[in-house]
Amino acid sequence: MTEFSWPIRVYYEDTDAGGVVYYANYLKFMERARTEMLRAIGFEQDRLKQEQDVIFAVHSMQVHYHKPAAFNDELTVISQICERAKASLTFDQRIMRNHDQQLLCSAQIRVACLRASRFAAMAIPADIKQRIDEVWH
């Protein structure tokens, strides 16, 4: 697997007064896709916290808004891990409109691996690193 795709439908609640997706909701769509990506390779975030004291938190991001999405659009969030460091993962993510394959939003998002009980940076656990390497390298 080099990319992970997750479908999204734009609901009325996702739009602003102008009838287009509110800018912050693109980040929510990307968050959902990252969560589903981890789930697809065998890691549930609640179990990681409970069993390994591990959480992932957004450290930084660079976002580009290209075109707006509107109510009832069907979108796809495409995600891939572009860098794995000792204590972080960097994702390239794109949101595409399905009917015309128009790029709507793109981002590079770095998430830090944290020890949940202390909110302190920690190395990505070996089982997670191994599974990521199996799937993306």
**Into how many domains do the coordinates divide?**
1
| Helical amount | 25-40%
The number of helical runs is 3
Could you give the distance between the termini? 9 Å
CATH topology: Thiol Ester Dehydrase, Chain A
Mean pLDDT: 95
Quick one: how many beta strands? 6
Shape: elongated
Sequence of secondary-structure elements:
EHHEEEEEH
Radius of gyration: 16 Å
What is the name of the CATH class? Alpha Beta
Main sheet: strands, sense, barrel: 6 strands, antiparallel
Provide the CATH superfamily: Hotdog Thioesterase
Q: Could you tell me the strand content as a percent range?
A: 35-45%
Name the structural class.
Answer: alpha+beta
Low-confidence stretches: none
Write the CATH architecture name: Roll
